[in-house]
Design a protein that fits this description.
Blueprint (H helix, E strand, L loop, with lengths): L8 E6 H7 L4 H6 L1 H18 L2 E7 L10 E3 L7 E5 L6 H11 L6 E4 L3 H9 L3 E3 L1 H33 L4
Parallel strand pairs: 1-2, 1-5, 2-4, 5-6
Antiparallel strand pairs: 3-4
Length: 167
């Protein structure tokens, strides 16, 4: 790392664990797992767009999804990746490997309520976060971004009005 260069925080999200353990997504997943997945990805995508984060969302893979091992979400989201674990490999194992392979483990945040995964990753030097804490942070960042945008729009509207002649 060069002097003065800031390291990007890399979030590794145990997707199905977050869906099934979070108070926000669990009720939705009981009735519509696909909708809960989409909600998680939408929240994470907004989070990725509002900050300088690298985010990897890891799902336990299914046979039909193996062709999409790792791909940027929507094909072009900078810093956001979607991974389906290979056949007979859990998302936990994929996340453990990703943490192990990184030099900057202190800049990794593993998001899961799985105590074994959290303990393993903390042992390698990464940080961990529970599902509800992460989603609360995401919602706070999204709210702050919305408030800032609204404030800017209000300020710009006032400035434009000031520039108009009374006639």
């Amino acid at each position: 790392m060069r002097k003065g260069q800031v390291m990007t925080t890399h979030y590794l999200i145990d997707a199905y664990n977050v869906i099934h353990k979070s108070s926000l997504l669990r009720p939705v997943a009981k009735y519509d797992l696909e909708r809960a997945r989409d909600m998680l990805l939408d929240l994470v995508q907004c989070f990725c767009l509002t900050g300088d984060y690298e985010i990897t969302v890891v799902f336990d893979g299914r046979e039909e999804e193996q062709t999409r091992q790792t791909a940027p979400l929507n094909g072009n989201e900078r810093g956001m990746h979607l991974i389906y674990s290979p056949h007979h490999t859990s998302a936990d194992t994929v996340i453990e490997r990703l943490v192990y392979q990184r030099r900057d483990r202190m800049n990794c945040v593993v998001v899961s309520n799985d105590q074994s995964l959290r303990s393993q990753c903390r042992g390698m030097g990464s940080l961990t976060m529970e599902a509800d804490s992460f989603l609360h942070s995401v919602q706070q960042v999204e709210k702050s971004a919305r408030d800032l945008l609204q404030k800017r729009q209000h300020t710009q509207a006032m400035l434009l009005e000031d520039q108009l002649s009374p006639g």
